[in-house]
Amino acid sequence: MNAKHTAAASLAALVLLVLTACAGTVPGTGDPLDGTSWILTTYGTSSLIPGTEITLEWEGGEVSGSAGCNIYGGSYRVSGDSISVTDLYNTEMACMEPEGVMDQEQDFLKLLRDARSFKIVDEHLQIFTAQEEALTFARAE
Length: 141
Fold this sequence. Notes:
Layout: H1 3-22, E1 36-43, E2 46-47, E3 55-59, E4 62-66, E5 71-79, E6 82-90, H2 101-113, E7 115-121, E8 124-129, E9 134-139
Antiparallel strand pairs: 1-2, 1-3, 1-9, 3-4, 4-5, 5-6, 7-8, 8-9
């Protein structure tokens, strides 16, 4: 192979490598939630009870996290800005403090089950139900 062919082959290999590396970040392709973690800041029109934390992780079509007292998990599917969360399950421990934590947990899980669309702006994720109620998250560090 002469120098001209070697240079062309090297350039083609480099272009292929760059395209492969960027494939997951091209707008409109892939799953923008995959591999991300979030912390709930508000749900519906409510703020979280002080001293509680609700987390959300997306990984390979699976969703999981802490609902404040119990852990939960399930499956999800993304298509454009549409999302569906299915087969959602949670452990069934009872937490008595802080007051209202169990109601907050059930409200969060209901909204997550009803998820229909989402958007990511800066370091925030919003998930919307068909009734336009929102779960708002900040990116976890």
